[in-house]
Amino acid sequence: MIDQIAGILSNIGLETVAGTVQDSLIPLAILAIGSALTGGLPLLTSPLFEFSLNKVFILSLFFLHPQNPTVYFALGSILAGAALRRMISGREFWRYMVTGITMVALLKYAPALYQRFQPGVQDQVAIVSVLPVLIFIEIIINAAFLKKGSDFTMLSGVVLISYIAAIPLSIMSLIMVTNEGIPGAVLAFAGLTGFSFLGRSINRKHVWNTQRIREISSQDRLATRLMESSSYGEFLAILQGNLFKHSGSSIRALTKSSGSFDWVLWSPDEQFGLDESSINGTFPAKGEFTGNFIANNIYGTALGLSEARDMIILFSGPEQNILQSMPGSLLENLVLLLDHTWEAVGHSLRSERSFLAAAVTLARLADSKDDYTHGHSLRVAGLSCSLGRSLHLSPENIQILRVAAILHDIGKLAIPAAILTKRGLLTRKEREIVEAHPVEGARIVSGLSGYEEVTRIIRSHHERLDGKGYPDGLCNGDIPFMARIVAVADTYDAITSDRSYHSISASESALEAIRKETGSKFDSRIVSALEAILSNETVSMA
Predict the structure, then answer these.
(1) HSE-CB of 314 using CA atoms within 13 angstroms
(2) Rounded to the nearest 5°, which phi and psi values hold at 489?
(3) At what angle do helices 14-23 and 54-64 cross, to 10 degrees?
(4) What's the pTM value of the predicted model, to 2 decimals?
């Protein structure tokens, strides 16, 4: 390939070109300007590589006139391109400077060294002969600027392709200048820079569209996560983690209250009722910002989420203005997203509270069939939640555990009251009826969408680790962990409550009875958590 390029250069009539350029420096100046513009405004840019046509102009300069003053025009174009790059974007400034100056230096001095070993070779042919060395050195320089984790093989390929593209274009420019002089230089300049600017515009539009698609996709994923929030606090925690990188930044929501307070200030951890006097600042309209907003002595930037100005998001900390640089269309989409998902979470919470109220009613109805079990399900739910928190269950699983514990005996609604309240031993048939209540309870709840885990817990809360429980004879890890929690809480309350088949027993006696069956019936981790709770006397019946 190099021999073919050398042959082409030998047939162009370079001696005439050299004489022409000595008479006029204008073609050199035109090509140098093209190098500066295309170097300062590269056609393609990415974190790994960039592609610009300044190599075409620099090679054309040296092909056209390898001697001085070409080197000054080439260096001047590199420095002017670097200044333009620094002024507009500042991206890859030093890599551009180092590779550009190295290229000029090699094109100036390497051909002379080559000619010492190959006397009589034309300057332009010597330039072509040293191009492999130039490509290798540029790959090494680019590798030095390569970011950690980037693909060196791809980088090498990109550098090689850039030279493969630049060489024929530079020869084409050389032919145009040789044949037409200054008009040829102008035509080469216009064609190459025009192509570069057009490609740059298309690439920037593509990058812009790609970035917007990525950001919209990110917002869609955020919406999905926010919709799955089990509380407003979790909603804000998810949003905060998505938008902020700095630990000192935080997000709160301020909503109009219909209760005794004028406003409610929500944070990931807690909520406060506020009067108008605790707020200082103009409430922003939907999609607009208000700086220097203060709520409950928390200073930050407020973003309006509703036309009625009854809900804002308050950003505080070092990154409080992070959204103000977001493009308008993306900000509008984010505002709609936050408004709708907040309302959806609120609707879900209201539905959850309604369901819990109905569940409590059903649990009380089941408990009411036996005078000795009054309040049993709520006490089991309270102790189960305490155990769940002690065992570091997630808020979502705590909520599932709460519902399952409240409804764990709902199957007793199908058991005749005469059997439930019978004093003394049950017959075998009566025992079978009683032991069917987990299956009946699971059947009742199984018709509710989204309560599959609750159904599993209700069905399995009388299973034993040794496989001797009911209704399925599950053992060890086959028993849902939260069903094991309910089993411990259920047994503890059964022993410590006044039941028809138990006398009143102290808490320590109940704990001792549970300890004796640890490993065979009860999970040792849950028993240890119960011991810790009882020792601290912090059992919560929430």
Answers:
(1) 26
(2) -65, -40
(3) 100
(4) 0.50
DSSP state of 259: S
pLDDT digits (tens, 9 = 90+) for 389-417: 999 988 778 888 998 998 888 888 877 87
- CATH for the stretch 2-209: 1.10.1760
Contacts within 8 Å (CB) and 24+ apart, 168-173: 169/53, 169/56, 170/55, 170/56, 170/57, 170/59, 170/60, 170/63, 171/5, 171/8, 171/9, 171/63, 173/31, 173/56, 173/57, 173/60
* Alpha-carbon 537 to chain mean position: 42
* Delimiting residues of CATH 1.10.1760 domain(s) in the chain: 2-209
Which contiguous run of DSSP H or E holds residue 44? strand 44-45
The closest of 9, 1, 2, 31 to 123, measured between CA atoms, is 9
Rounded Cα gap, residues 360 and 358, in angstroms: 5
Which class would CATH give 369-536?
Answer: mainly alpha
pLDDT, tens only, 415-443: 787 777 777 788 888 888 888 889 988 98
User: Which residues of the chain does CATH 1.10.3210.10 include?
Assistant: 369-536
Pairing between β-strand 271-274 and β-strand 263-266 as defined by DSSP bridges: antiparallel
Nearest to 451 by CA among 498, 421, 408, 507: 408
